[in-house]
Amino acid sequence: MKEYLEDINKAFESKVRLGIMSMLMVNDEVDFNTFKELLGLTDGNLASHIKALEGLEYIKVKKQFVDRKPKTTYSRTRDGEHAFKEHLLALESFLKNNL
Amino acid sequence: MKNNEAIETVKEIRSMMEKSSRFTSFSGTSAILIGLFALAGAFVARNILLTVKPIPDEYSTPAWVNIMPQLFIIASLILILALGTIFFFSIRKSKKINQSFFNKPAYRTFLNFFLPFITGGIFCIALLFNGNVGIIAPAMLLFYGLSLINASKYTYDNIFWLGCAELLLGLASAFFPGKGLLFWSLGFGVLHILYGIYFYLSIERKGRQL
């Protein structure tokens, strides 16, 4: 059983980081407020989780101005996509062997 | 990691993927308003129709040809008002939660809605030109129902049921010639108002997502 656990990525243990990554897998770009709305978090809390994923280079940040208001959007990186898929595979095999 | 924990995780992933890829900037108020516009339009249309002596299956008499443009203009006005209302309220809602209105989910929703919708619209214009006026109301209801069902995959699930209700009315209407306006008012007026109230009470006020 232990070997399946090894592949389960620690970065995705948090529900928030898992949620952020899930959204970025199906959308090329997601903005900060969408994350906030769908995850129901405060700015600070969300920002720290985003920082963590950014630090791992799983997500990319794009800052721009729309109607003179700052707008931050995020997208997945190749590493992030790969890590998430590995995580899913690990979950899958874990479930297969335990059901 | 326990088994149910892993299952929870998978559920969470699924739910986030779904929620983030759907169009949610929709407001129940706009559905209620659209229903009211439709009822008002149907009322005006009824008064115009009362000036013409009905002859079953006969829509090419001079009296009919006379009122056709008026009915067409009323229908177009309702359509423009309805689309304007939908866009106005959706843009307002997305501004309120600081999302960009025209994102991918919105694009997918509108594309899937307008494809059958515009097809139906052009089809109804053809029916009008050919004098098949009797089946315009059922055709409108049917194409509208199909448009809603098609779009429901990319936005709130419950729009599927509104679409089914429109389909039922459209089919029923096809069996009752001469009662088109009545079914039209039920489908575009009453159903929208009921759906808008339901949407407002069960989703908007509770702040539910999908």
Based on CA atoms alone, the radius of gyration of chain A comes out at 15 Å
Q: What top-tier CATH class of chain A fits best? A: Mainly Alpha
Q: And the CATH topology of chain A?
A: Arc Repressor Mutant, subunit A
Low-pLDDT windows of residues of chain B: none
Side by side, the strands of the main sheet of chain A go 1-3-2
Give the overall form of chain B.
elongated
Helix content of chain B: over 70%
Question: What's the overall geometry of chain A?
Answer: elongated
Reported for the largest beta sheet of chain B, the result is: none
Secondary structure tally, helices of chain B:
7
What is the count of distinct domains of chain A?
1
Protein structure class of chain A: alpha+beta
Relative helix content of chain A: 55-70%
Order of helices and strands of chain B: HHHHHHH
Beta-strand segment tally of chain B: 0
Distance between the termini of chain B: 29 Å
Topology:
The complex is a heterodimer of chains A (99) and B (210).
Chain A: H1 2-6, H2 15-26, E1 30-31, H3 32-39, H4 43-55, E2 59-66, E3 69-76, H5 78-98
Antiparallel strand pairs in A: 1-3, 2-3
Chain B: H1 3-20, H2 28-49, H3 62-96, H4 104-130, H5 136-151, H6 159-175, H7 180-204
Helix pairs in contact in B: 2-3, 2-7, 4-5, 5-6, 5-7, 6-7
What does it look like?
The complex is a heterodimer of chains A (99) and B (210). Helices cover 60% and strands 18% of the residues of chain A. Chain A has 99 residues and is an alpha+beta fold. Chain A has a three-stranded antiparallel sheet. The radius of gyration of chain A is 15 Å and the shape is elongated. Chain B has 210 residues and is an all-alpha fold. Chain B has one domain. Chain B is 76% helix and 0% strand. Chain B is elongated, with a radius of gyration of 20 Å. The chains are: A alpha+beta (99), B mainly alpha (210). The interface between A and B is medium-sized, with 25 and 21 residues.
In short:
The complex is a heterodimer of chains A (99) and B (210). Chain A contains 5 helices and 3 strands. Chain A has 99 residues and is of the alpha+beta class.
